[in-house]
Amino acid sequence: MSNGARRRVVMDAAVTQRALWRVAHEIVEKNRGTDGLALVGVRSRGEYLAERLRRKIGDIEGVEVPLGIIDITLYRDDLDHRAQQPAVKGTDIAFDVDGARIVLVDDVLFTGRTVRAAMDAIVDFGRPQKIELVAFVDRGHRELPIRPDYVGKNIPTTYQERVSVHLVECDGIDEVVVETPSEADTASGSAGS
């Protein structure tokens, strides 16, 4: 984004915390507890959101659900279109995926391609009973038939806008920002997400 982009904060730290508490409660309620439940965060911001949800579920239920982290880099369907070599940061799933009820956590749901890649990666570890999806932000514009089970916030956007989830763990602040490109950015095609 160039300096001409318009930036608006749509979620601050307080709204972020309330959304995470609500989603944690919804996960516990829909799954009737935590038996067989495991959280898997999509690197990188999804892993931090999954850890926060894990702590909140622990506060609600008094148990610690298993947590995994999935790196989808090598599962992306656009890998051969990227100019640079992919940076693989690794996957860490130290629990048995077979028969588990996996709650996949991602920061922004846009086209659905990241979620498809994450499901492919999870299935390489075993066959879960089911996979549910937490999209902290659902911005629409799906290219694949994927719908989240839990949503922190729906934020309708144009295709050219960019949604950024900033988290204390990696950005020093909790907020969700929508950036609208300037006309010059739109003309040059630099406003994707």
What does this structure look like?
- The chain is an alpha/beta fold.
- The protein has a domain of 127 residues: Rossmann fold.
- It contains five helices and eight strands.
- The strands form two sheets. It has a five-stranded parallel beta sheet. A three-stranded antiparallel beta sheet has the order 1-8-7.
- β2, α2 and β3 form a beta-alpha-beta unit.
Total helical segments:
5
Main sheet: strand order:
3-2-4-5-6
Mean pLDDT: 90
Radius of gyration: 17 Å
Tell me the CATH topology of one domain: Rossmann fold
Low-confidence stretches: none
The biggest beta sheet is recorded as:
5 strands, parallel
SSE order: EHEHEEHEEEHEH
**Which structural class do you get from the secondary structure elements?**
alpha/beta
CATH C-level name of one domain: Alpha Beta
Q: Approximately how much beta-strand content do the residues carry? A: 25-35%
The helix fraction, in percent, is 25-40%
